[in-house]
Specification:
Radius of gyration: 21 Å
Structural class: alpha/beta
CATH topology of the largest domain: Rossmann fold
Number of domains: 2
Strand order of the largest sheet: 8-7-6-9-10-11-12
CATH superfamily of the largest domain: NAD(P)-binding Rossmann-like Domain
Shape: globular
Helix content: 25-40%
Strand content: 5-15%
Length: 324
């Protein structure tokens, strides 16, 4: 049995679980494989593929060109870039793992970005290392308004931290329950009011056809010149061209981004030189605790499948691919 571990950028996957329990040849890829033809060329020999979240897409045309593939494991409970209909058609078992059911890592990452942008942490770190001293002026969070777009499993604890900082917290989403928001100590507001009055806007929604491009030129034009936008959810929820223009023209104060429309971010991406930004490479789930749970579950999934037993975290049906 040949097992492929994908997108192991930190070269840690082999150390995070007991892969030697498997009667298998395990290969870890420490780089992104690329487009469909590259994926097929690299993975054609493998019986089992362990995908790291949604870094590598598996549409039907790719799956049909992998004749040896019998088990696809995604880290996390679901994967929106896997064609589950094609898996069923081809008789390929699809399994998930734990590791993202707890929201703490993304909540913490959100606030790391908020604080880094508000206090110019990366810029001042570079200045100190270059022999300089204070140049920028930060801003207080206490007494400011935090606008939470999506008050769910991540949005609520993000709001709670905002309240602990002494911020006035408001929220909006299409399906926001006003009573639920008030019970969390958050004021429900209209979308326009959130963007027009918030000093920090943070995005916590699932990517869907309804949320794609949800934050565009109209919303960004409502924001004040000093306001900060933070996105740790999914890149395409925000119109990246509109956001880049707003930052370049100085129409908003800054942005903290952990997610992008194309990941990994291309070397020639204009984001790499965008002003007033703090950029991180989709670190929201990247913690040692999360990796340990994901990879341990992946080993267990493979063991059960190889023994002909039911896979404990089997994902059945195309509806699973739209959840997070």
């Amino acid at each position: 049995m040949k097992v492929a571990l994908l997108d192991d950028y930190q070269r840690l996957a082999r150390t995070m679980a007991a892969w030697d329990r498997l009667d298998a040849e395990v290969t870890a890829f420490d780089h992104h494989l690329g487009g469909p033809d590259d994926v097929v060329a690299a993975l054609e020999p493998f019986d089992v593929v362990v995908a790291m979240r949604e870094r590598t897409a598996f549409p039907g045309d790719v799956l049909r060109r992998l004749p040896n593939l019998r088990l696809l494991v995604t880290t996390g409970p679901a994967n929106a870039v896997v064609d589950t209909d094609a898996l069923a058609e081809l008789g390929i078992t699809f399994a998930g793992t734990g590791g993202v059911s707890g929201n703490a890592p993304t909540v913490e990452m959100t606030w790391a970005l908020v604080l880094a942008v508000a206090r110019h942490v990366p810029e001042e770190d570079r200045r100190v290392r270059d022999g300089g001293w204070q140049r920028t002026i930060g801003r207080d969070l206490a007494g400011r308004r935090l606008g939470v777009v999506g008050l769910g499993g991540i949005g609520k604890p993000v709001a709670a931290v905002g309240k602990a900082f002494g911020m006035d917290v408001v929220a909006w989403s299409r399906h926001l329950d006003p009573d639920d928001a008030r019970a969390a100590g958050v004021t429900p507001v209209a979308k326009e009011e959130l963007f027009a009055t918030s000093d920090v806007v943070t995005v916590h929604m699932k990517l869907s056809e309804g949320s794609r491009g949800l934050i565009g030129r109209a919303e960004l034009d409502l924001m004040t010149a000093g306001a900060i936008l933070v996105n740790t959810s999914r890149g395409p929820i925000v119109d990246e061209d509109a956001l880049l223009a707003a930052l370049t023209e100085g129409r908003i104060g800054g942005a903290g981004l952990d997610v992008y429309g194309t990941e990994p971010l291309p070397v020639d991406s204009p984001w790499r030189s965008a002003p007033n930004t703090v950029l991180t490479p989709h670190l929201g789930y990247v913690t040692s605790e999360t990796y340990a749970e994901m990879y341990a579950d992946a080993v267990a999934d493979i063991e059960e499948w190889a023994a002909g037993r039911p896979v404990p975290r089997h994902i059945a049906g195309p509806e699973a691919a739209t959840s997070r």
